[in-house]
Amino acid sequence: MLAVIRDARGDSSAYEQLQGLGTDGLDTQAIALIDEAQGWHALLDGRMAEAGTLFRRGAASSTSNASSQLALAAHAALWNLDASEAGRALAAINEIGIHGRAVDNARTTMRAGLVALDGHHGEAITLYREALRIWRELGLRFDEALTGIDMSTLLPSSIPEVSEATIAAREILTDLGATAVLNRLEAAIARESAAEAKPQADRRSKEGAIGSQVG
């Protein structure tokens, strides 16, 4: 949809025009596409819970693009560190029963995120490695980039595969001109960097307090 493409590139004008349209007389597929556009706008704005709700609503409205919307709902949940909602999206896509290399790989990507959230980094990397390989074989660069954001959000950057996926995601999104999506990647990197820096800051503060007491 044009509104989604432009929104991903930082131009919300088409989305704003879409907002002015009503849904009276539209079929379920059209309504689902509007939900998807609204979900993307919320996702790019950092409103992950709202984005997930919109993607799931779109998936419920039309089965023709339900798997892609549920995959997006999972990304939103994972970027929000919400294992419950990510698991809900995976259960829903399994219930639909649609299969194919892309859909099955979306499931692998979802499982990798859930495993990462559960703290099993080695298993998550194994799943992510397979997911990235298949996205590349299928030529689905944007899905590869979204998976890179998942990894940057959920796993330490000190893991080589995470660093490599982050670099690849940045290159893909820059090449596609998807500046608004690139902002989500940079936000994930910043959050992970802040999480890594906090223990060091706490340790320095504690050492300083001990030093002042000794002095």
| Helix and strand element order | HHHHHHHHHHH
Main beta-sheet annotation: none
Mean pLDDT: 88
General form: globular
Fraction in beta strands: under 5%
Number of strands: 0
Low-confidence stretches: none
Rg on CA atoms, Å: 19 Å
Structural class: mainly alpha
Number of helices: 11
**Helix proportion range:** over 70%
Spatial gap, N to C terminus: 66 Å
Description:
With 215 residues, the chain is an all-alpha fold. The chain has a domain at 99-215. The protein has 11 helices and no strands. It has helices spanning 2-8, 13-19, 28-44, 48-61, 66-79, 83-96, 101-117, 121-138, 141-154, 160-176, 179-214. It starts with a helix and ends with a helix.
What descriptors fit this protein?
11 helices; 0% strand; mainly alpha; 215 residues
In short:
This protein is an all-alpha fold and 215 residues long. The chain has helices spanning 2-8, 13-19, 28-44, 48-61, 66-79, 83-96, 101-117, 121-138, 141-154, 160-176, 179-214.
How is this fold's topology laid out?
Layout: H1 2-8, H2 13-19, H3 28-44, H4 48-61, H5 66-79, H6 83-96, H7 101-117, H8 121-138, H9 141-154, H10 160-176, H11 179-214
Helix pairs in contact: 1-2, 1-3, 3-4, 4-5, 5-6, 5-7, 6-7, 7-8, 7-9, 8-9, 9-10, 9-11, 10-11
